[in-house]
């Protein structure tokens, strides 16, 4: 096991400058979604995304993957995943342009489960109106 480390600050990873091992053309989006993310510190001291698009996130009673695998055709209904999960259902071969907007003053890592993704841009502006997002 690696020794534990404590850091006072994290350096910004220039992920948009990373070069893939196998180059691919940029995907052409068929759908767009803006994900507004707000963070909060919970009573146990942890800092997590507390709101996704103005929905306070609460873990579902049944893990989403288990719901998807056990619900058959109903797995395409986003309501089965619970009202507090902000679930979005993609159709096969659908390409989503996902714009994540972090409304917290700090930098936070984000991760995606079960999807192939490309980072196409990153913005440091505090206002969407200060830059061109085309």
What does this structure look like?
With 134 residues, this protein is mostly beta strands. It has a domain of 71 residues. The chain is 5% helix and 19% strand. It has a four-stranded mixed sheet with strand order 3-2-1-4, with no helix packed on it. The radius of gyration is 18 Å and the shape is globular.
* Shape category: globular
Beta-strand percent range: 15-25%
* Discrete helix count: 1
Percent helix:
under 10%
Strand order of the largest sheet: 3-2-1-4
Average of per-residue pLDDT values: 78
* SS class: mainly beta
Which regions have little confidence, pLDDT < 50, spanning 5+ residues?
A: none
Summarize the biggest pleated sheet. 4 strands, mixed
Give the gist of this structure.
The chain is mainly beta.
Give short descriptive properties of this protein:
mainly beta; 4-stranded mixed sheet; 4 strands; 19% strand
